[in-house]
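Customer escalation, tier 2.

The customer says the design service returned an amino acid string that "doesn't look like it belongs to this structure." They asked us to rerun it and document both sides in this ticket. The original structure tokens are below, unchanged.
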């Protein structure tokens, strides 16, 4: 039985280290990426995965130490994985609505910004 606990402690430690690494990489992405459209990737992808790993480690630990499975962390993880993409989508839509400029080195075209630039070049007024 001692071998099982040692194995689970190793798994929990790996999950905590992975969670911390993902959260750190997401934070670096948030500070170092060039414009808001690229900055959305840091907190929504890597930081969400990092917090998910930490919550999974917490769930395993308290299930191992406690009397039974711990479902609070699972509910938090599900809520996080549902709300993170929705909030990122809302941030991107508000950036498009405010017509925030993008870095010229950013690859790809944003359709909504290209349409607005065409209308402005033709002298059309948008509502």
């Amino acid at each position: 039985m001692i071998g099982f606990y040692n194995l689970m402690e190793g798994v929990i430690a790996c999950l905590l280290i992975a969670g911390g690494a993902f959260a750190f990489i997401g934070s670096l992405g948030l500070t170092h990426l060039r414009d808001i459209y690229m900055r959305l990737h840091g907190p929504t992808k890597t930081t969400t995965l990092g917090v998910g790993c930490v919550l999974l480690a917490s769930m395993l630990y308290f299930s191992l130490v406690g009397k039974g499975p711990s479902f609070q962390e699972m509910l938090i993880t599900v809520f996080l994985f549902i709300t993170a993409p929705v909030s990122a989508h809302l941030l991107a839509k508000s950036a498009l609505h405010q017509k925030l400029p993008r870095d010229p080195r950013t690859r790809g075209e944003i359709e909504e910004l290209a349409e607005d630039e065409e209308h402005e070049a033709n002298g059309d007024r948008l509502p």
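Tier 2 assessment: The sequence is consistent with the input. The CA atoms of residues 41 and 77 lie 19 Å apart. DSSP finds five helices and no strands in the chain. Sent an explanation to the customer and offered a walkthrough call.
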